[in-house]
Amino acid sequence: DRPLVVLGIESSCDDTAAAVVASDGRVLGEAIAGQAAIHAAFGGVHPSAAAAAHAAAIESVVAEALARAGAAAGDLSAVAVTVGPGLSLCLDVGVRKARALSREAGLPLVAVHHMEAHALVARLAAAAAAADAAGGGGAGAAGAAAPGGVAFPFLCLLVSGGHNLLVLARGVGDYLQLGSTLDDALGEAYDKVARMLGLKLEPHGGAVLEALARGGDPGRYALPVPMQRHPNCDFSFAGLKTGVRLCIERELPPEGHPDREQIAADIAASFQSVAVTHLCQRVRRGIGWARDALAAQDSAGSDSSSSGGGSDAGGSSSGNSSNSSNSSSSSNGRGGDCSGSGRDGSGALRQLVVAGGVASNAVVRQRLGELAAEAGLELVVPPPRWCTDNGVMVAWAGIERMRLGLFEPALPPLQLEPGQ
Ligand code: KG4
Ligand code: ZN
After folding, report:
1. 39 CB under 6 A from ligand 1?
2. Can you give the pTM of this predicted structure?
């Protein structure tokens, strides 16, 4: 059977992006128009400026992705588009383009959730590697592929400028949210601290701050690790940000002072270290919660007793009262050793996926990699250009949904009957 070939369109925030991807994992063509320069003056994404920029770019971005794929709209199996969450003025631009294509070329339309696209693109890296091995050699098939593929269920940490979510991905369209942020997302906190330190914000405040922190001492300033008294999987960065602001006011000498550069680097490194400690604490607990949830699901699905207790090294092992198992078994199941007979461990947690712009941070990867290894999980991080917003992730999520029949039939051409 011929692979599906899907065009994905993304316009939820400040990138207009499109890509053509085949269901065997080949990325046939990609295009993206960023808006960083437009929003730099506002100090954040300005919705109507963003919508105008999307409107100006959408036709050429889609045309470019199709041209690079050597495809015409009529060659496609479907068009997928991000329908939310995001800025509605911006989403509209992509949705309108997708509807027009669906109508003109008779293509099925796949509605894609932005966060699902971020999560599922990790599965593309594995498919792309397989296509490469088979000699498919898609244009964008290279990347940090997951050796064994990414299979459900997996734990997924999404960390970007707008989102900070921890979810148990149980299947396409089936996510258990374990935690989210009470205030800022980590990328936003990176951007704000970068601004407080007077750094350049391009290409991203986070990347510039990471580079500065490389020369700093992460132990120099003791900043508060967030939410120590909240044994759950939620995140918060507002208090840490305030801590950094006070530290800067107290410690950072004025421009021109010989120690300024080093002190700024030490503050950056101290902030980063505590922020990543916070991520690690929440993810460690989330691994326990996820295992509890899976064990509860297993025992609900069969009458045999479950051995998989959550291993919450973060302290409390009571888990999330609303969605974790109540198992009082003290058997200390670790490392995905769910012994559900005959299920070949298919219900066990094996992978931690980290996605979103902050996933390109080396310290984040390193420390979450160590944590994953301790917990018997494989860490999977998509290549950086698939971590930040892009069209490939939308096209891929579209393919995953199409395979399950989760799409709308082609929109009919408008039937305008003449009035009398
Ligand atoms: O996923 P993304 O492109 O956009 C959103 O959907 O929000 O993520 C952008 C965010 C920005 O806040 C940026 O500062 C952060 O990701 N970021 C980083 C790094 N590269 C980008 N944060 C920390 N370290 C990095 N290397
Ligand atoms: Zn995003």
Report:
1. no
2. 0.84
